[in-house]
């Protein structure tokens, strides 16, 4: 088999498995990615992964999806990035399109197996945080930066707080480590994207952002209006899927595209499926225009994330290898550890661990993952079964 085809097939298989089993929101997804791509398959080194996570925290859109796309690009070029995106995203898109027609008769938001999967997310994130902390905060200065990021993001929980913390940590890292960066290990990751592609992608991103509202006002085509609403929502959101939900509600409920009850039913469904929360757009699109609307909405809301990543990766690759920038990245990577610990506590821990028996299940799952080194899918299945059993106790 052609080497490229073999690589693309491998990316499709791995990303699809992640798309079927990655519950728990964007921070949990980063944990799953870290376990599968970095620990097990070593497709990137720790520093390269942390750099990519830091970049995607800066960009608007679904950070975990952008990280998955970036890893796919690194492994298999632009086609690899597209395949990685499709594998991770399509399972939840298909599920939510089906939910759009079926979920109204079921109430599974508080089902036991859903609570079990939330506990799985706690375990996966805790494992990822421990691994990243060992690599990225080895000295007192970096531990202090991580502690600062943890405290600030816990006390002021907004998307802009995260961006401010990352920027400030970059400044601190530049000042503290600018004389020591030569001793730091060089990241071995390289993203095969030319600057020409970067310029084209950024031009498309800003061009569509400016032109779509104009086209919407000049025409009465429903598809143009839908594309504008989803594209704008995906372009202007920092902080991931939970932040996009109120934007989507403002875009579609008052305009009469769907009712408040339908919106809330879809929100419950989105919590119940794996993959990125941005796929909630597939549910809205399917309510409005069937499965075609669901696929169209998915394309429209994720397109800005893809264009932004392709547009920034070529320049990011050059910047992060610049000795003047490496000190800043050391600080940024340390702050990412603190932000992940804050997210591990809230919302992941606070929404999942409610009793001693929940904690006991988490301890069992953590031991299975870390000490017995069982595959993540076994942890997911065990967590779901454990959640069901707890519901009957």
From TrEMBL:
Regions crossing the membrane: 12-33, 78-100, 112-133, 145-177, 197-218, 268-288, 295-316, 328-346, 377-392
InterPro entries tied to this protein: Chr_Tranpt_l_chain (IPR014047), Chromate_transpt (IPR003370)
Pfam families per UniProt: Chromate_transp
Localization terms from the record: Cell membrane
This protein's record includes keyword Ligase: no
Keywords, in A-Z order: Cell membrane, Membrane, Transmembrane, Transmembrane helix
Domain of life: Bacteria
Family to which the UniProt record says this protein belongs: Belongs to the chromate ion transporter (CHR) (TC 2.A.51) family.
PANTHER family associated with the record: CHROMATE ION TRANSPORTER (EUROFUNG)
Stated name of the protein: Chromate transporter
